[in-house]
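SAMPLE LOG
Freezer: B-3
Tube label: C17
Construct: single chain, 155 aa
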Amino acid sequence: MRAQGLLVRLGAVFLALRVMAPGEVFAAPTAVTKNQDFNFGKVAGGAGRAGTVTITSAGSRTYSGSVLPLGTVFSPARFTITGTVGKTYTITLPTEFIINSGADQMRVTSVTSSIALTGVIPAGGVVTFSVGGTLNVGASQRNALYSSNMNITVK
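STRUCTURE (predicted):
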């Protein structure tokens, strides 16, 4: 018997940089780089199987309900902020977003960061962080490749 499942990968993560006027408290980072896409991996869902798959910002995967993760390829999204040492940055994450495969959709909720959302650029001028979240799989979810964009702002 061949196992079938949903393949969920966010193909693109959009970052928005906001440059602020001189004299404000925050200084925009010089650069924000996406190092790795958010990837929930293959999941056996639908056909009466419903539940959640969570990828933590630390990189572990758990599941609930009757959803079953297949395989071992999954990852949180990973980013690098490069900026001026001692300047403050703020990361804004979505609280949730929708992923699609044609007309079919799933919701990603509980989006979290591996670091505090506000901080100071340390010596060396580089901050790395990961983003995790929870995929909500419906009992009638179609097996397909789902993708979307996740908007993250760093200022």
